[in-house]
Amino acid sequence: MRYADSVIDLIGDTPLVRLNRVTEGISATVLAKIEHANPGGSAKDRIARNIIDAAERDGLLKPGGTIVEATSGNTGVGLALIAQQRGYNCVFVVPDKVAEDKRAILRAYGAEVVVTPTAVEADDPQSYYKVSDRLAEEIPGAFKPNQYDNPNGPRSHFESTGPEIWRDTDGRITHFVASVGTGGTITGTGRYLREASGGTVRIVGVDPEGSLYSGGPVHGYHVEGVGEDIWPKAYDPTIVDEIHRVGDAESFAMTRRLAREEGLFVGGSSGMAVVGALRAARTLPAEAVMVVLLPDHGRGYLSKIFDDDWMRAQGFDPDAVIPASDIPGR
Ligand code: PMP
């Protein structure tokens, strides 16, 4: 019989699939790593497992304890599924820009969800960082994973995502592309691939317009789970060779193309990562092998990116098709 002992054992070993349509006009092989194949539907299952394993080892999380975290949803799902399997409680603090369907998913796994305003500074007492800090102090037996600063986040990608990509490309990968949120994915995976290749793999970050990582003015944007207005410790900028700045409209147009043309029903940060990947791939030769990581599933965005009325109300054209040839180079 072939089965896993628990859903936790199904985390990782996600597949690569070649992008065939949105890459029109590009010579390089562009492979997407499908992180929604993780049981919780995102790459964040990986960090959740590593962070909880380490907290148990270090005595920070004891039986019956409560996990308190500021999360845009995916980390919450990962933490919630591990917590329920191991008997912990979960309280998640999410900014109000996070769609109601994403919050419902967290509740479905048995977690409690606290909603805070998005439009406040990080050091405002109402911000999701500060509210989660306060709850972690008030609740007895609370453990705050703090995905922004916890080294076990990037470490999980160094130990799993990187080796999987290296193995599945037979060491032929030349470029790795990832969107940057906490920076854990690009830092851990990028560090592994750089070491494994002797420094030849080029690491490409993709950042939303309005975020700190790619410079320029910091302002609000709609794409979720990526970009930052403070520098987290999980991000090591020395790992990243180039960074592309991508706007909401392009990210959402590509997200919808991925569903319609590649059969990949993924979230907005995946569309954003693919726009950055295509930009970086435009001038690459046919021998180049690029892997772009698609962090999560489209199910959390049904009432937003995949809702024509929402798209129009925000000023985005739901029928926009931005071909690779129209994506401006760097
Ligand atoms: N996309 C989505 C939807 C996410 O939730 C996250 C995690 N915040 C990312 C991308 C970025 O991953 P990381 O935090 O590892 O940079």
How would you characterize the overall build of this protein?
The longest helix is centred in the middle third of the chain and has 17 residues, at 152-168. The model has no long low-confidence stretch (mean pLDDT 94). It contains nine helices and ten strands. Strand 3, helix 2 (74-86) and strand 4 form a beta-alpha-beta unit. It has 330 residues and is an alpha/beta fold. The chain has a six-stranded mixed sheet. It has a four-stranded parallel sheet with strand order 5-4-3-6, sandwiched between helices. The N and C termini lie far apart (51 Å). 4'-deoxy-4'-aminopyridoxal-5'-phosphate (PMP) binds next to helix 6.
Chain-wise SSE layout:
Layout: E1 16-18, E2 29-34, H1 44-57, E3 66-70, H2 74-86, E4 89-95, H3 100-108, E5 112-116, H4 128-138, E6 142-143, H5 152-168, E7 175-179, H6 184-197, E8 202-208, E9 242-246, H7 248-262, H8 268-281, E10 289-294, H9 308-313
Parallel strand pairs: 2-10, 3-4, 3-6, 4-5, 7-8, 7-10, 8-9
Antiparallel strand pairs: 1-2
Helix pairs in contact: 1-2, 1-5, 5-6, 7-8
